Amino acid sequence: MSESIARRGFLVGALGVGAALTAACTSNAAPAASGTNVAAAAGDNAEPGTPVTIGFSAPAADHGWIAAIAANAAAQAEQYPDVTLEAVNPTNDITQQIAAVETLINQGVDALVILPNDGSQLTSLGRRAMDAGIPVINLDRIFDSPLAYRTWIGGDNYGMGVSAGTYIGTRLRDAGVANPVIGEIAGIDNLPLTQARSQGFADALSSFGFAVGPRQAADFTAQGGQRVAANLLQAAPRLDALWNHDDDQGIGVLAAITQAGRSEFFMVGGAGSANAMREIQGGTSVLEATVTYSPTMASSAMALARLVAQNRGMGDLVEKEVPTSITLASATITAENVADYLPLGFES
Predict the structure, then answer these.
(1) Which residues, by range, are in coiled-coil regions (predicted)?
(2) Residue 344 lies in a domain
(3) How far apart are CA 328 and CA 177, in angstroms?
(4) 116, 171: one domain
(5) Are residues 197 and 139 in the same domain?
(6) Could you tell me where the beta strands, DSSP code E, fall in the chain?
(7) Are residues 212 and 314 located together in one domain of the fold?
(8) Left (φ > 0), alpha (ψ -120 to 50) or beta: where does 133 sit?
(9) pLDDT tens for residues 117-143?
(10) 212 exposed, middle or buried (CB, 10 Å; 0-12, 13-18, 19+)?
(11) pLDDT class for 39, splitting at 50, 70, 90?
């Protein structure tokens, strides 16, 4: 077991929600529904506490990863007899999300789990909830101020880039490839998460003496991925490796690669979709690895909201309080370990 997996194995024990983190080293509880991953609380956290109502708000499920966020949150809440979930209608409209969460605040829920459409624009709303005595678990897209949330939990965008760059750099170095041509298909370039992923990728490659070659940004959709990949492949008659930031987007990227009849390079994906993992498992695709950014973080967010609302800490930690920040590590999934991660995958 690698050091990074061992470290996250410790976090699994601390949270008591083994399937809610991306790198559980043991088997997971059976999913409550297709594409969801849940686990019962462990140790003292398994004991029912004060009944609590947890409000939940997230963007509309127009992307496989976002759909899995909502599914995992709901499935995890169902594991607890002491939790009532109040989920508002998902929306991509900032104004509607604000109005929906305001309703939850006015109802006096015991805790809130919020994945904001835009962290900056919803910061004041998180602060309003906190000022009203309602602890906020800020999921993934972070608010501008720590006063707006009790705990933040999310993925490591920079770490995704580092994981992808380290895998590609190691492969090319070990193969003795000199001056490799390394492509990158990013997500939406003006988003901080995309910028962090690209920076981590460039930094990791530089440690091998390599640099990013042809790079284009898409839009996290299969259609955008196909269009951008077609353009990149046409402009780059030779590639040694390619990193695509997002596995939903990767459906289109792989389609463009097939259409172009290209197979001289290997590809790394991003996020850890079940589709990508099955492609890796099949062993007949240019897609040979993906790096995780798992929506099972929503399961953990729900577990944390319950503990915070009940004034309990994480069972395996010495401290009596839930930490204020939890960053999930980004694992690299290959043919060697894909069977371990497939149960955590989401459908694109």
Answers:
(1) none
(2) no
(3) 32
(4) no
(5) no
(6) 52-57, 83-87, 111-114, 136-139, 151-154, 182-186, 215-217, 241-244, 266-271, 287-292, 325-327, 332-333
(7) no
(8) left
(9) 999 999 999 999 999 999 999 999 999
(10) middle
(11) low
